[in-house]
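User: quick one - fold this with S-adenosylmethionine bound?
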Amino acid sequence: MLDLDAEVTAGQLAELTARIAELAGDHPVRDVLDIGAGTGTGTFALLRRFPEATVTAIDTSDEMLRHLHESATRHDVADRVRPLRADLDEAWPAIGHADLVWASSSMHHMADPDRVLRDIHATLRPGGLLAMIEMEQMPRFLPDDLGFGRPGMEARCHVLLDEARAEHLPHIGSDWPSRLIAAGFTIRESRDVTVGLRSPLPETAIRYAYATLGRIRSRMADQLSADDRSTLDTLLDKDDPNALHTRSDLRVLSTRSVWIATPR
Ligand SMILES: C[S@@+](CC[C@H](N)C(=O)[O-])C[C@H]1O[C@@H](n2cnc3c(N)ncnc32)[C@H](O)[C@@H]1O
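Assistant: Sure. Structure tokens for the protein plus S-adenosylmethionine:
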């Protein structure tokens, strides 16, 4: 799903990394850290933008890092990527200084994000940049009134998802600008990155819809009403005439907030 998200947001990511390059100005971007790198969406976007850069991709998950390493090998950039297994909740690894730190959809996973922000601050060279991205809203795919039997199925799913996320991830949606400033950063730019795709959708976006709604169906099965379960089953059944890939009203809507900050 992370790789599908990367493909769907590739254009917006390229614009964002171009803006980071502008803000970096004459400061060389060689040592880059990708915090909670996952499958490498940020790592690969940054390698493309900064040809002199090497990226240390940090994650707790061996599986994510293996996937990232395989992609790096496939794209012939493995010599510019250093996958590093580390749990940033435990301690900041000994990785030296950085010119750019990228933290996309990862900071809200940290048990103590303020401590991690202070560690990032200490790691950045003077003039270095932190690009922090947090998803404002999980991606949506369906019209608001959709629901066979009861309209508004996707919105109800998102209420349940938000409740589950708030319970497990208490820092989600927190006041990141204040936290950045408290950790010693000056925010140079805040912006929203919006993905809004409508029919005809590329094949990747349709697969992204199947993957996301399929995950909601399996993770939320017990909490969904019978009506909503049945709506999802219909949409996810590729042989059904109402399946996702047949629908001209399928879309992708998602918004992320971005802060680009530098140590004070
Ligand atoms: C939602 S994913 C985001 C992945 C990637 N940055 C992206 O934008 O697609 C969050 C990632 O943070 C990692 N993560 C969560 N807690 C972490 C921690 N304490 N230390 C290091 N990585 C962590 C997870 O394993 C996961 O790969």
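One thing worth noting: The chain has a mean pLDDT of 96.
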